[in-house]
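Researcher: For the record, we're logging two predictions in this thread. I'll number them. Prediction 1 follows.
Model: Prediction 1, sequence and structure:
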Amino acid sequence: AQLLELGELHPRVSPDSALARALAGALPAAYASLASASDPSDAACARDGGATLDAVATILDGARWLWTGAGFAASRHVAKHSPADLAPYLHGVPAELASRGALLDALGVRDAFEPMDFFEAANRLAKDSNASGAEDSNASSTGTSTPKYTAFILE
């Protein structure tokens, strides 16, 4: 519940701020506690059969819970293997969490991004920069427009 609240309050944080340093210092213990819930050799996990982790996964589904060093991101915007950190839209798993593969899997972090993730990130960037989005501003003679990036992404 604390991760959920922190993520809602701090989607973006200046990486050089005192808050970022405090979160970076405190969150490894929270993630370690979550990781023990995903470890079958842990006594508590063995007792409840993973029910605690299932409940956590349900609560965090779609929420910003994963600290990136500059804010919190939802699982769908984080991948274990990312070609680049495309903050604030797509993020690689922070080094501090890279060894927590079982936890990341249980909480919906994917191995890699799909092409559509990059397309959606580009659309969000365009929207955030008050651009016209991914639609071609020059409508065709039929009066319809086609997404600029579709051919590139789907090839």
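Researcher: Logged. Prediction 2.
Model: Prediction 2, sequence and structure:
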Amino acid sequence: NIDCVDSSQSLIENFSKNTKNKKIKLHIADALNFVKKNKKTKYDAIILSGILQNFDDFELHQFVKYLKNVTHEKTYLLIRVSIATNERINVINQYSDALDALYTAYYRTKKEINNVLKNYKLIFEQELYANHEDSKTIFMVYKYNLWKIFFILCS
């Protein structure tokens, strides 16, 4: 079974109209609250596409903390994220012509992302494209790192 989570009602409704697969469950929800409240399902793979840069630091740490609710020792995290190439870039309530709206995004460095996901082992990384001269979008795959968890519990 597949659970698809997005906070956009129109996106979920559009997806619902265009899919016939009964194994896909659609949820209109905030990703942070979904992982915080979901304690029943443990996923083999979790795809996070373009979401990490939307969390401020507190929300991102909370999200990673609550990932334990939906992961097990063999879970893979597949992440598409836009990052800063040299130093962090915070875009706070900036107007975007493309979106025709204000938006906020936190373009962290790869080192910051790896630090937040320290309980997961990076096993694959691929640059997808450059956004601007100071940012790019990458694809990363992490696997739960049991040895690190064990070390933390025993130290």
